[in-house]
Amino acid sequence: MTTQQVDVELIRPLRSLILRPGQPIESTDYDKDKDNTTLHYAVLKNGTALCIATFYPEPMEDVSSTRAYRLRGMATYPDFRRLGLASNLMHKAMTDLRHEGCDLLWCKARLVAIEFYESLGFMKIGPMYEIEGIGSHFTMYKKIK
After folding, report:
1. Are 51 and 85 in contact (CB under 8 A)?
2. pTM of the predicted model as reported, rounded to 2 decimal places
3. Is the pLDDT of residue 133 over 80?
4. Are 107 and 140 in contact (CB under 8 A)?
């Protein structure tokens, strides 16, 4: 298995399966997917994305930073969860983001992912909120050093 940057089209099927089940594939399009500053990562096995995430520059309200990046679309195939793939992907991405000048990484975390993000040093900020059609979330962030 390898963890590397990939083209967005390689990760969209897994985004659809895990994050937007039953919705059209178009629901997996993010506004910044094709920006040249957006980074898409995947853990690949024989060319298949088993774990994915997308990162792009976006300021975070309430936490000051010089260059914040937002994490979106993190997902892992169910049969490959709890094997360290997501942690490995995040460590690789955070190393690369440091080289891009990133000093803050943030996300809107689903409740099922809170413990995972906390294990990586992310902290919750603000109250829980609902994203229509998706569910309950907390905003979380981590200073990148």
Report:
1. yes
2. 0.92
3. no
4. yes
